[in-house]
Design goal:
- The structure holds two protein chains of two kinds.
- Chain A has five helices and no strands.
- Chain A is an all-alpha fold.
- The two termini of chain B are 18 Å apart.
- A two-stranded antiparallel ribbon of chain B has the order 1-2.
- By secondary structure, chain B is an alpha+beta fold.
- In chain B, helix 2 crosses helix 3.
- The chains are: A mainly alpha, B alpha+beta.
- Chains A and B meet through helix 3 of A and helix 2 of B.
């Protein structure tokens, strides 16, 4: 009976030792699995954070889960989950590159559209503003405004013309410095004011 | 006064400002009358004359059907 008990104890110790050894055997592969995934994420670079933040977050969240498992010594769990996460992590670089290319293409298309709009604005607004300024200068000398134009409206047109000229200077300066977006934004404001002035002065061509 | 506001036929080709207002002379018109209508003050008729010196040589001589720039 005593010998049997001793044997059982020996078996238990042997089993515990085997388990410990097994754990220890899986710890390094688990650590390496996590490190490989982190290296794949790092390889995706800052482009992943900029262009595919949701995908990156999904992988980093899973890495956090893996590390929690590792801290709990669930190396088997780490090794079971790691391959799928590694595949996702390895896909980040390609996905980030694709997303970056798509964003750059969209930006180029938007810039092209802005450049075309600028060409239209710069081709029409100076003449429009010049025509308004000519009329305003003449009306400023008039003893009486024409029918359909009251003093308040005329003063509003004068103010709008001054603003339009200032905005146009800003637009051309922005365009000269390469900021087409700011140029177009200011140009649109000039057009809005110029259209309103032409209408108020009864100069809209028909 | 019946007003006719038109744009130039082909402003780009003619070098005209496409936003220039045009007026077609009607029977009974004078530059004074046209200036009074557009500017509220007939005495500004010389502004119209100066802007149309390519077709007008005398501010008192305008012809029905002429298209005048109204600067």
């Amino acid at each position: 009976m005593k010998a049997r008990s001793a044997f059982t104890g020996f078996l238990s110790m042997l089993l515990a030792a085997a388990l410990l050894a097994g754990c220890a055997n899986q710890m390094e592969p688990a650590r390496k699995a996590i490190a490989d995934i982190e290296a794949a994420v790092a390889a995706a670079g800052p482009d992943a954070a900029q262009y595919i933040p949701a995908e990156l977050q999904a992988v980093t969240s899973q890495i956090a889960d893996l590390k929690a498992k590792f801290d709990q010594k669930d190396y088997k769990g780490v090794l079971a989950a790691a391959p799928a996460i590694l595949t996702q992590a390895q896909g980040l670089a390609g996905a980030a590159t694709s997303a970056k290319q798509a964003a750059e293409a969209a930006r180029a298309a938007a810039l092209e559209a802005l450049s075309a709009e600028w060409a239209t604005l710069s081709g029409t607004l100076p003449a429009q503003v010049a025509a308004i300024e000519s009329r305003v200068n003449i009306l400023s000398k008039s003893k009486k405004l024409p029918a359909g134009l009251d003093q308040a409206t005329f003063e509003s047109v004068q103010g709008g013309l001054t603003e339009a000229k200032t905005l146009w200077e800003q637009a051309t300066a922005a365009q000269a410095s390469g900021n087409v977006e700011a140029a177009v934004t200011a140009g649109r404001q000039v057009k809005e004011k110029a259209d309103a002035a032409l209408a108020a002065l009864g100069m809209s061509a028909g | 006064m019946e007003e006719k506001v038109t744009s130039a036929d082909d402003p780009a080709a003619s070098g005209e400002n496409p936003y220039t207002q045009w007026y077609e002379v009607q029977p009974g018109d004078s530059l004074w009358k046209i200036a009074k209508h557009h500017y509220g003050d007939g005495s500004l008729y010389m502004e119209i004359f100066k802007a149309n010196q390519d077709i007008l040589s005398d501010p008192d001589k305008i012809q029905v059907g002429q298209r005048l720039r109204i600067p």
